[in-house]
Amino acid sequence: MEETKPQLLVVDDELGMREGIRRIFNLEGYDVTIAENGSEGIEKGSQKEFDVALIDLKMPDYDGVTVLRTIKERWPDTECMIITAFAGIDSAVEATKHGAYTYVPKPFTPDQIVFEVNHALGKRRLTLETRELRAEQERRLLEISQEKSRLRTIINSINDAVFVTNLEDEIVLANPRTRSLLNFPSSIRAGDNIADVLPREVIDLIHEAQEKTRQDIELVSHEWEMKPNLELVVHMKTVPVKDAEGDILGFVTTMQDVTQLKRLDMQKSQFVSMVAHELKAPVAAVSGYLETMHEQLLGDDIGSYEKMIGRSRERLQALIDLVNDLLNISRRDLGTVRREITAVRIPDVVENTRELLEGEMARKDLTFSAEFEDALPTIDIDRDEFSRVITNLLSNAIKYNREGGHISVHAEREGEDVRISVSDTGIGMKPEDQEMLFRQFYRIKNDATRSIPGTGLGLSIVKQIVESYNGNIAVNSTWQDGSTFSIRLPIRFSGGE
Ligand code: ADP
Q: Which CATH class is domain 339-497?
């Protein structure tokens, strides 16, 4: 097949005939292979694929039809021609039944045989070409359908609603997300009119896009609060689809769920306004005290201002605490917190923190106890971050405790984690107040807490740190009886945030 010369097999027991044919076809540019009898013909004809085989009908061993049949079985596309001196209709029919291309009676002229063989060769080439073309066509069709299904798969797996409409306001294509985002009960199909399947807001957007393209404006986009109170907000965009000449064929519209982004945006604004509010109160108070002193409203004895100075210092200290907490939060949000993970002994940190807070405990006449499991493992954690967690929990246990109350710390291993709990005998919390506890700036407001200073940031920082180590925090509290905050932290550090 690969050879450029046409391959001809001649099977004939007559030497003169064989050689004659060989000479003729060598001159014609054929590569000629000779077989002297039927069995040699079968052997050579089966070994490789010939373009054309000339087979004598009568040979001493096998007859030509048997040779032809064997070759055809192996190479169905080899064109076989029977040559015989005993031309007769029976043999001809028999030979063609088994796939002979034609029948050449002896004697024949060189021109005759060349004509017949060339013809057979032409037929074979045509058959092969047609087959090749068909295979190529099938391959192309397969490729196209694969390409189409690949495109469809991509469009269908996009998490935004994507749909195409034509100039008759009909849907051309819509991915499944379109239906789910629009909460449309049945699927949206090609040919549906947009008035029947799309909400007013989307239809208006498409019509606006149709209008704007006339003014050469390509992109039209809107934000649409589909469900109020930031429950579902989508960002919709429509652009025209053009052909190679730049004529508009239709429009592609995408709808993206931006609810989370909008909520974050909102939280950011709320945060800024809360920070401003929290900063304003102490600054205004201190400014008021300074004003009083400046005007010497209580006379010129500094002693008369002792209480004001004390209050100012307290308010400024609270302000410094707030600024430090804010800096801490922003460093974590920006990811600029540098951690040094080491094996930390929990009792050491608890003891250090207790020493730091000893004065405050004494002022409220609080007692303290700590209980650590004997084989308590060290934990892989940044020591400063862990100290911040323990300091926040212990200082809350002091602040929200009653005079003469008690604080206890307990730590034990729980599988691959440790659980550390800090309990107090303080004012406790009502169940409804516990839900928001870990939110930034959240402070429970009641008679018991009114006079206790704080920023409402401590527990949110604790939660953020603990969760960044794949741990968690929980609270158990009884109103006017006391609270227990417990944190669970993995013993081994596994990458965290
Ligand atoms: P802050 O103590 O600065 O107000 P936190 O985030 O540490 O801020 O605490 C938030 C709120 O949770 C506090 O204002 C307080 O009402 C309540 N709280 C925290 N710890 C306790 C506790 N141990 N007992 C009772 N209430 C607490």
A: alpha beta
Q: Which atom of ligand 1 has the smallest separation from the CA of 457?
A: 6
In which element (H, E) is residue 468 found?
helix 458-468
Mutate which of 364, 444, 476 for ligand 1 pocket (most atoms within 8 A of beta carbon): 444
Kindly report the average pLDDT of the chain as a whole number: 91
**Is residue 82 in contact with ligand 1, taking CB distance under 6 Å?**
no
H-run or E-run covering 412: strand 406-414
Q: With a 6 A CB cut-off, is 389 part of the ligand 1 pocket?
A: no
CA-closest candidate to residue 78, choices 87, 86, 69: 69
State the pLDDT confidence band at 328, using cuts at 50, 70 and 90. confident
For position 1, what pLDDT does the model report?
A: 47
**What CATH architecture is 1-133?**
3-Layer(aba) Sandwich (3.40)
Percentage with pLDDT > 70 across the chain: 98
> Which residue is associated with the tokens 């407001």?
445
Q: Which of 325, 459, 481 to mutate to test the pocket of ligand 1 (most atoms within 8 A of CB)?
A: 459
Check if 407 has its Cβ closer than 6 Å to any atom of ligand 1. no
**CATH number 1.10.940.10 is the correct assignment for the domain at 260-336:** no
Assigned CATH class of 136-257: alpha beta
Q: Euclidean distance between the first and final Cα of the chain, in Å?
A: 65
Nearby residues of 443 by Cβ (< 8 Å), 6 or more positions away = 449, 454, 456
